Amino acid sequence: MEINNFISSWLFTLILALAPLFLLLKLKQKCVNIRHKLPPGQMGVPWLGETMDFYRAQQANRLFEDFVQPRMARHGKIFKTRLLGSPTVIVSGAEANRFFLSNEFKLVISSWPSSSVQLMGKNSIMGKQGERHRHIHGLISSSLGSSSAEYLVPKLSKIVQRHLDVHWGGQERINLYHFTKNLTFHVVFECLLGIDVEMGMLEIFERILEGVFTPAVTVPGTRFSRAVRARKEIERMLVRIVRKKEEEMERERENSGGGGGGNEEGGALLLPRYVAAMLRGEMSEEEVIDNIVLMVFAAHDTTSFAIAMTFRMLAHHPNCYQLLLKEHMDLKSGKGEGKDINGEDIKKMSYTWKVARESIRLFPPIFGSFRKAIVDIEYEGFTIPKGWKVLWTTYGTHYDPEHFPDPTSFNPDRFNEPKPPYVYVPFGGGPRVCAGYQLARMNILVLVHHVVTRYDWSLIHPDEPITVDPLPFPVHGMPIQISPK
Ligand code: HEM
Ligand SMILES: *[C@@H]1O[C@H](CO)[C@@H](O)[C@H](O)[C@H]1NC(C)=O
């Protein structure tokens, strides 16, 4: 008995002695848990997670209503899920945009599916970081800066009018969405890059774009393998174009005694800028080619959808249309017969730009985009572990009644006052903000100007459904009835 007594009293002492240590350990554990509190939300079934729900909602163009909104209602503006094997945190709202978009390269980097990277090329701006990224981003956006608008607008205006003459002349019915796709393709090549579009180029590019968000399976017959073949085809064309430009510029440099920087206009176009950077050894040929391919991807479906939705909203809101029409008629009658619009005139289209911005607020061409955490991130009391994905969203921001009262109604006058940063984000924000924003703006304004001053038009299907593949578009290509004024 004595032995037993001894043991139990010894145990008792031991426990007493160890208790604080135990408590301390427990507490520490708790602290770690608190410090590593994951955002709320369901991870779904193993690997797939909630991917099927996500796809189903996306296909119906109801990703926000059917996937994001119900989860926001349950968990708040930040929640976790799992998509295609990746734990993903979905965030909404201006604060989240500011945090994640401005911390690009520090806390997160942009993250694209393997098929996109393979088709755009790993040397495009998408995959670049830090200084390399800044250099390429700067080349693109400075080609489109305010000083360039002076020569860009007349050129853009000529292209728009040529396309209207060719495709609308003698017609009663036009597929507006298909028309704008062809137009924006020519605008990117001729206005921004300074490359003449060759036969069949658009079709090859469309085949590439069709594979960008499909599984990267190179089995013959899949969309992806067709896209890879198209990519090789376009690469051959572009290599030829880039090398020709290179020879041309080298010859020019020799002729001008080594100091030549090209003429004023050539100086602003992007291909000569890229090739000049190549000649200085600042860019490789692969980088030039990949960035041309990426640019088409970035500009094509986005601008076309923005234009389609602007016209749709104009058709639905005749009062706004009257105001907009007056803006363009006044501009036209103030210009004198046969005078084309220029960079200054773009600034006078302020009501039109409000209409376009409001249309893009309601129907942002880009739902949001993925980032990857490169460190453990602390945000709003939650931890987002290193390696997890983050999806920031335009819809989750644009439908916030705090910044856009009665958010589902169409009201261009919302933009009478400037919006605080990160509240309106159809073009993203931070270091990866859209490099083509100015081109998109000019493209939309110039097209609207020529259409409304030359044609009466109406939608054939006023409530045409919108589908997503993977960017949104009107299912019938948005046919409109037209008649010349
Ligand atoms: C209405 C039309 C457009 C919309 C809504 C749009 C939207 C966006 C958005 C949201 C991003 C950021 C993506 C991210 O953060 O991951 C972006 C990036 C980009 N956009 Fe646009 N875009 C449009 C038109 C254009 C055009 C016409 C060009 C062509 C020059 C262009 C070129 C780019 C490029 C190069 C980037 C990548 C910038 C970088 O990574 O630094 N975009 N765009
Ligand atoms: C695009 O437009 C150009 C010129 O306006 C035309 O020659 C070409 O056939 C069009 N391409 C398609 C696919 O519609």
Separation, N- and C-terminal Cα atoms: 112 Å
**Can you list the strand order of the major beta sheet?**
1-2-8-5-3
> Per CATH, what is the topology of the largest domain?
Cytochrome p450
CATH architecture of the largest domain: Orthogonal Bundle
Give a list of the ligands. Answer: protoporphyrin IX containing FE, 2-acetamido-2-deoxy-beta-D-glucopyranose
- State the fourth-level CATH superfamily of the largest domain: Cytochrome P450
Assign an overall shape: globular
CATH top level of the largest domain is Mainly Alpha
Number of domains: 2
Instruction: Note the beta-strand portion.
Output: 5-15%
Radius of gyration: 27 Å
What is the number of helices? 18
Protein name: Taxadiene 5-alpha hydroxylase
Keywords: Heme, Iron, Membrane, Metal-binding, Monooxygenase, Oxidoreductase, Transmembrane, Transmembrane helix
Cofactor: heme
GO molecular function: heme binding; iron ion binding; monooxygenase activity; oxidoreductase activity, acting on paired donors, with incorporation or reduction of molecular oxygen
